[in-house]
Design goal:
- The complex is a heterodimer of chains A (115) and B (115).
- Chain A contains no helices and eleven strands.
- Chain A is mainly β.
- In chain A, the strands form two sheets. In chain A, strands 2, 4, 5, 6, 9, 10 and 11 form a seven-stranded mixed β-sheet that branches. Chain A has a four-stranded antiparallel β-sheet with strand order 1-3-8-7, with no helix packed on it.
- In chain A, β5 and β6 form a beta hairpin.
- By secondary structure, chain B is an all-beta fold.
- In chain B, 0% of the residues lie in helices and 53% in strands.
- In chain B, strands 2, 5, 6, 10, 11 and 12 form a six-stranded mixed β-sheet that branches. Chain B has a four-stranded antiparallel β-sheet with strand order 3-9-8-7, with no helix packed on it.
- In chain B, β7 and β8 form a beta hairpin.
- Chain B is globular.
- At the A-B interface, β5, β9 and β10 of A face β5, β6 and β11 of B.
Chain lengths: 115, 115
């Protein structure tokens, strides 16, 4: 089955530690996205990438970093500079190729709790 | 900039009741409009979408019509079930000034259906 996987589902870290969230897709999609979701809020865009080795900041990139070394992978690092990192993180992807679509498909999310 | 406003929840309905969740948007140009659904502890799933004015999106008994004159995309279902209990997000998709396609989300409406 094609889809997007995020691991782990739950993640706990101590304050001041960097942590990396995994996002993998086997849909052969070019574009990938990271969103942050807080209780009672919509999703806010952290970073996105439309092609390997290139990525752009979203609305709330401060305190986060990403890499896109492979088409199928787009890991997100939450650094110690992120002031309030506890949240639900969602990864998404979109097809820009021959089956180009305006629809983004989401993974199951990772809930990060910083203690 | 683009924005999405949807009715605040939570919304509690009895099974078989009629559902309306209001969504209005502000955007330049001709955005695509989406409804996503999020079940507890999971990622977002696309429920339906519409890409141009007067289009009606439909899926699993849910419907929404793209109304350009009222800048609205209200979600409706004639008879809700307990299994419809979830958080519903209205979203707008459009190209940014930098030429990238991005989604703007409403804050979500939590629906609880009681037997």
């Amino acid at each position: 089955d094609g889809g997007i996987t995020q691991s782990p589902k739950y993640l706990f870290r101590k304050e001041g530690q960097n942590v990396t969230l995994s996002c993998e897709q086997n849909l052969n999609h070019d574009a990938m996205y990271w969103y942050r979701q807080d209780p009672g809020q919509g999703l806010r865009l952290i970073y996105y990438s439309q092609i390997v080795n290139d990525f752009q900041k979203g609305d709330i990139a401060e305190g986060y970093s990403v890499s896109r070394e492979k088409k199928e992978s787009f890991p997100l690092t939450v650094t110690s500079a992120q002031k309030n990192p506890t949240a639900f993180y969602l990864c998404a992807s979109r097809d820009l190729g021959a089956r180009r679509t305006d629809t983004q498909y989401f993974g199951p999310g990772t809930r990060l709790t910083v203690l | 900039g683009n924005s999405v406003t949807q009715m605040e929840g939570p919304v509690t309905l009895s099974e078989e009741a009629f559902l309306t969740i209001n969504c209005t948007y502000t955007a330049t140009g001709y955005p695509s409009l989406f409804w996503y659904v999020q079940y507890p502890g999971e990622g977002l799933q696309l429920l339906l979408k519409a890409t141009k004015a007067d289009d009606k999106g439909s899926n699993k008994g849910f419907e929404a019509t793209y109304r350009k004159e009222t800048t609205s995309f209200h979600l409706e279902k004639g008879s809700v079930q307990v299994s419809d209990s979830a958080v519903y997000f209205c979203a707008l998709g459009a190209y940014s000034g930098a030429g990238s396609y991005q989604l703007t989300f409403g804050k979500g409406t939590k629906l609880s259906v009681i037997p």
